[in-house]
Amino acid sequence: MLTTATITAVVSAALHEDAPWGDITSELLIPSDAMASAELVAREHGVFSGGAVFLAAFALTDPSITVELLVADAAPFAAGDVLARVSGSARGILQAERVALNLVQRMSGIATLTAEYVAETAGTRARIADTRKTTPGLRALERQAVRDGGGHNHRFSLSDAVMAKDNHLAVLTANGISVTDALLGLRARLPLTTHIEVEVDRIDQIDAVLAAGVDTIMLDNFTPEQLRAGVAHIAGRTVVEASGGVNLGTVRAIAETGVDVISVGALTHSVRALDLGLDVTVATDVVTD
């Protein structure tokens, strides 16, 4: 789950990047006692994600700023909906708005795209999952957005699970090492609960991997016909994941082959930020010295 500590670390770094020595425009142009309010408005429909991150951007800039979230994470919204209201120091709101918007727009874009993939696979057994093709430093936020869109998370990092890919297997083969023996030896050295997944790109590679008793086999860049044959060959002996060539136009056909998981790098590596705007109005009851 996305923790407060992670949100604070990520948002603090983003705020420092954006205003390392303060916001000289607002500090020199806007009176220190000027107050303002703002609304986060949707310019298009989508699925919301990043409420706590949006709130943190303002709270870490100026704790006196108040943020009222009007929709919950994972909730759908329509164009024109007001998603949040912000009020307080005009300087603080103006300084935090870009970071707040950048993060909530990206997270909501990921949640919205994930929801579209999930909808395309409705009625099948396939679960939509993300990959490690995330923005460096933003992985925890982007994974939360995938969950808000109804998707599932793959391993978080290289430390979390074994995932032997084609390059790993190529190195073993080049050194005359049996794939089955190498995987069995790996299992013997791992904690009992550590998941083992192996990627194959040909059906004739499956038996050597199955013989090692792995937990998941990834069928990479298989056609739907090849996926169907792979699923039939594995016959429930392990979880079957499909990867490669997945987009909104192909995901339904992939899901209908009977795979258990479809991993989609596009959820995070090329997603479009959702069009959300922060409309600021100046309060009329500004108190002056």
From TrEMBL:
Q: How does it assemble?
A: Hexamer formed by 3 homodimers.
Binding residue positions for substrate: 98, 131-133, 155, 165, 199, 220, 243-245, 264-266
EC number(s) recorded for this UniProt protein: 2.4.2.19
**Similarity annotation:** Belongs to the NadC/ModD family.
Q: Which organism is it from?
A: Microterricola gilva
Q: What processes in GO biological process is this protein linked to?
A: NAD+ biosynthetic process; quinolinate catabolic process
The question of whether Transferase is a record keyword is answered with yes
- The protein's name in its UniProt record: Nicotinate-nucleotide pyrophosphorylase [carboxylating]
Recorded metabolic or biological pathway in which this protein acts:
Cofactor biosynthesis; NAD(+) biosynthesis; nicotinate D-ribonucleotide from quinolinate: step 1/1
Reaction catalysed by this chain? nicotinate beta-D-ribonucleotide + CO2 + diphosphate = quinolinate + 5-phospho-alpha-D-ribose 1-diphosphate + 2 H(+)
Give me the Gene Ontology terms describing cellular component.
Answer: cytoplasm
Give residue ranges for domain Quinolinate phosphoribosyl transferase C-terminal. 110-279
The chain positions of domain Quinolinate phosphoribosyl transferase N-terminal read 23-108
Provide the GO MF annotations for this entry.
nicotinate-nucleotide diphosphorylase (carboxylating) activity
Q: Which residues cross the membrane?
A: none
Instruction: State the UniProt keywords alphabetically.
Output: Glycosyltransferase, Pyridine nucleotide biosynthesis, Transferase
- Give the domain of life: Bacteria
Matching entries from Pfam families are given as: QRPTase_C, QRPTase_N
